[in-house]
């Protein structure tokens, strides 16, 4: 639970930082990190709430599917966070909005895989 509290504080700080930064590159990096923290705190909350839900078979399967989804989303956002510096170094002069593609990969791929 200490980790979840610290992640919520990190999310609050990143939200304030995103609003304060006007540059698109710095803001995009913060948004990617924000989504990573949201997936981490979501998986931790589902894990803490689902530890006692093993009596009912349907609830147990739902908790397992949610955990699978949020952990896969965490891995995908970690991949995106590692891939973003490569894009910054190799594609210096591109200025299209990559966030919608990052959202599709970060949340869409785990959804397709879990469903």
TrEMBL record:
Gene3D superfamilies: Rhodopsin 7-helix transmembrane proteins (1.20.1070.10)
GO cellular component: plasma membrane
Transmembrane segments: 58-79
Subcellular location, record wording: Membrane
Keywords: Membrane, Signal, Transmembrane, Transmembrane helix
Primary location recorded for the protein, binned into one broad class: membrane
Pfam families: 7tm_2 (PF00002)
Span of domain G-protein coupled receptors family 2 profile: 1-115
Residues spanning the signal sequence: 1-20
A single GO BP: cell surface receptor signaling pathway
Example GO molecular function: G protein-coupled receptor activity
UniProt-listed InterPro entries: GPCR_2-like_7TM, GPCR_2_secretin-like
Membrane topology: Multi-pass membrane protein
Stored PROSITE patterns: G_PROTEIN_RECEP_F2_4
Descriptive protein name: G-protein coupled receptors family 2 profile 2 domain-containing protein
């Amino acid at each position: 639970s200490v980790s979840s509290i610290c992640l919520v504080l990190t999310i609050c700080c990143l939200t304030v930082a995103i609003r304060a930064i006007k540059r698109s590159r710095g803001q995009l990096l913060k948004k990617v990190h924000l989504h990573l923290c949201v997936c981490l705190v979501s998986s931790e909350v589902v894990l803490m709430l689902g530890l006692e839900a093993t009596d009912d078979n349907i609830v147990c399967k739902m908790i397992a599917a949610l955990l699978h989804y949020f952990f896969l989303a965490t891995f995908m956002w970690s991949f995106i966070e590692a891939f973003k510096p490569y894009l910054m170094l190799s594609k210096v002069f591109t200025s299209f909005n990559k966030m919608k593609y990052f959202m599709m990969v970060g949340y869409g791929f785990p959804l397709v895989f879990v469903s």
